[in-house]
Amino acid sequence: MKNNTGRTVKLILLNVFFIIICIGSLVPILYAISVSFNAGNNLLTSRFSFIPKVFTLDNYKAVLIDNPFLLWLKNSMILSVATVVLALGVSVTGAYAFSRKRFAGRKSILYILLLLNAFPSILSMFAVYRILKPFGLVNSYLGLILIYTGTMAIFGIWNLKGYFDTIPVEIEEAGKIDGASDLRLVTKIMLPLARPAILVTSIMILIFVWNEYIFAVTFMTGSEKYTLATGLYSLQATEYTRNWPVFSAASILVSIPILIIFFALQKYMVSGLTAGGVKQ
């Protein structure tokens, strides 16, 4: 009886602890929402409050009308969709090969890819620029898509390989007995079984591209080619033109598409993230 009571108390305290952490993490988000509806720009000199002193929608109108927000949104969507498609194409085929095929240097290649992904991307900035410049890929969507694909394909390969490893080989062997070709095995058996991991990988790639700033601001010039991340920074570029309510409104609008996608696919998140790390 004492053991059960102690276990219950520990569980309650643990739940209370995590609830406090969740509430604390929501404070900046709730405050940003409050600021986005505030008519004044005197936040640094006023007292902290979740309730706007003067409620207004002008900040959202300024983002959508006075600034090329919709153009930045289009640019980010082009980069995100193209990167997700290319990175998944590389990741799925590569992960399946590393999971099911046995060839010389298989583990070494995986560890080299992991090592390359461990270095900060900014270290490769100059080398990537020198590679893209002769092909005219600087200041082009294609160049940035190739950079993002190369960056996230490594993550995709490792994540999907772990998931493919959890799928029993006997399922494929049964398909081969029934006369299924290799292509049919992958498209009709493996891909449907790996759907949770593929969706999670897609979301992670999408979030990376949606929020990426360093490569976008380095390889893309001109406000007409800004992504949402670089566009947000441009709103706060100088100390004298900072408008925190407008910036908060833009930040909220940037977050909405990702939140919609995340909540729509959240049922796949736990299984997709945990199963990928079961085997090597």
Question: How would you summarize this macromolecular structure in one to three sentences?
Answer:
The protein is mainly α. The chain is built from 13 helices and no strands. It folds into two domains: 2-58; 59-275, MetI-like fold.
Total number of distinct structural domains: 2
Helix-strand sequence:
HHHHHHHHHHHHH
Work out the helix count: 13
Quantity of strands, as a count = 0
**Intertermini distance:** 42 Å
Largest sheet: none
Rg on CA atoms, Å? 23 Å
At the third CATH level, what is the topology name of the largest domain? MetI-like fold
- Low-confidence stretches are 276-280
Strand portion: under 5%
Mean pLDDT across all amino acids: 83
Report on the architecture of this protein.
The protein is mostly helical. It has two domains: 2-58; 59-275, Orthogonal Bundle (MetI-like fold). It is built from 13 helices and no strands. The chain has helices at 2-36, 58-66, 69-100, 106-118, 125-132, 141-166, 169-177, 182-193, 195-211, 214-219, 228-235, 244-264, 269-275. Helix 1 (2-36) packs across helix 12, helix 3 runs parallel beside helix 6 and helix 3 crosses helix 9. The longest helix is centred in the first third of the chain and has 35 residues, at 2-36. The radius of gyration is 23 Å and the shape is globular. The two termini are 42 Å apart. The model is unreliable at 276-280 (pLDDT under 50).
